[in-house]
């Protein structure tokens, strides 16, 4: 999540260690990236076990969020936001399970597409209900198609990362503007989302830069402790949660502008969900 807000899930500096990695069900990796988790250590059928199962946080909660949003009768763009995040989770699951190039694209390209949906929702949050703005849709569509075409021809992960980072930067700037000048009471949710996402990004970089040291430490640590050093899996968890909270923020901004009564509730006292109460009648 590849991350995307905010997926996804790539790096240009991951290094394979043949003395540690094993061969498994999906054969030799064909992806342009191979992460720091040792291949086929936990399961013969899953190349990177912890990097795979950690995507559940980007699959199950967004699906529930999409169902709740649909039931509340909110605009379809927000259903698409939740489903887009779930699509990134599914793609990332397939990528890390197989390390095949086709599955890598299934991870990385949905990160671009879903984040474009996030951008549209946040930049069009102060418009008439159920309205469509064709110009930003056209711009985002052209951007998505252009990134796809270029990336299919130029298989350079850094290009994908820069394009994804540009979209995330747009989200960050817009979010900070809204909670600074329009709805200041939403600052805690906004900054919590950003902080969690940035924590994931920090761990992603640590995983890439110190991969050799992390792999060496796992050879001496007990298995249960070594799992904690799978920082790319933590990247999935934190960016998945941060992206989910961003969608809640976007929904709360939109529903507040439309004069609904959004209310954050915690499932089992832990997981945040947004419920929209009917408008008060005079």
CATH first level = Mainly Alpha
Measured between the Cα atoms of the first and last residue, the distance is 46 Å
Secondary-structure-derived class: mainly alpha
The biggest beta sheet, please?
2 strands, antiparallel
Main-sheet strand order equals 1-2
CATH fold-level assignment: Rhopdopsin 7-helix transmembrane proteins
Q: Which CATH-level-2 architecture?
A: Up-down Bundle
Number of contiguous helices = 10
- How many E strands? 2
Strand content: under 5%
SSE order, one letter for each helix or strand: HHHHHHHHHHEE
Instruction: Please tell me the overall pLDDT.
Output: 90
Cofactor: Zn(2+)
Organism: Seriola lalandi dorsalis
Subcellular location: Membrane
GO molecular function, one term: metal ion binding
Description:
- It is built from 10 helices and 2 strands.
- α3 runs antiparallel to α10, α4 (101-123) runs antiparallel to α5 (134-153) and α4 runs parallel beside α6.
- The protein has one domain (49-259): Rhopdopsin 7-helix transmembrane proteins (Up-down Bundle).
- It has helices at 49-53, 60-71, 76-98, 101-123, 134-153, 157-181, 187-209, 211-218, 223-226, 231-257; strands spanning 261-267, 271-277.
- Mean pLDDT is 90; it is low at 2-19.
- Helices cover 60% and strands 5% of the residues.
- β1 (261-267) and β2 form a beta hairpin.
- With 282 residues, the chain is mainly alpha-helical.
- It starts with 48 loop residues before the first helix and ends in a 5-residue tail after the last strand.
């Amino acid at each position: 999540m590849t991350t995307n807000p905010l997926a996804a899930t790539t790096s240009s500096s991951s290094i394979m260690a043949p003395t540690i990695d094993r061969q498994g069900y999906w054969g030799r990796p064909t992806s342009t990236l191979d992460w720091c988790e040792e291949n086929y250590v936990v399961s013969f059928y899953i190349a990177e076990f912890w990097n795979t199962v950690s995507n559940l946080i980007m699959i199950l909660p967004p699906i529930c969020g999409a169902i709740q949003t649909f039931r509340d009768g909110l605009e379809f763009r927000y259903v698409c936001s939740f489903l887009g995040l779930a699509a990134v989770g599914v793609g990332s699951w397939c990528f890390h399970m197989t390390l095949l190039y086709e599955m890598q694209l299934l991870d990385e390209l949905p990160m671009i597409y879903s984040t474009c949906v996030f951008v549209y929702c946040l930049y069009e949050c102060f418009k008439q209900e159920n309205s469509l703005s064709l110009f930003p849709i056209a711009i985002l569509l052209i951007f998505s198609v252009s990134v796809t075409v270029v990336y299919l021809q130029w298989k350079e992960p850094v290009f994908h990362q820069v394009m994804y980072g540009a979209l995330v930067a747009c989200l960050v700037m817009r979010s900070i503007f809204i909670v600074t000048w329009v709805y200041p009471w939403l600052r805690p949710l906004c900054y919590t989302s950003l902080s969690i996402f940035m924590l994931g990004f920090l761990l992603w970089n640590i995983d890439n830069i110190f991969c050799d040291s992390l792999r060496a430490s796992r050879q001496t640590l007990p298995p249960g402790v070594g799992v904690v050093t799978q920082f790319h899996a933590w990247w999935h968890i934190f960016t998945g949660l941060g992206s989910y909270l961003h969608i809640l923020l976007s929904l709360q901004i939109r529903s507040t502008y439309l004069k609904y009564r959004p209310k954050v509730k915690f499932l089992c006292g832990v997981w945040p969900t947004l419920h929209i109460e009917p408008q008060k009648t005079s």
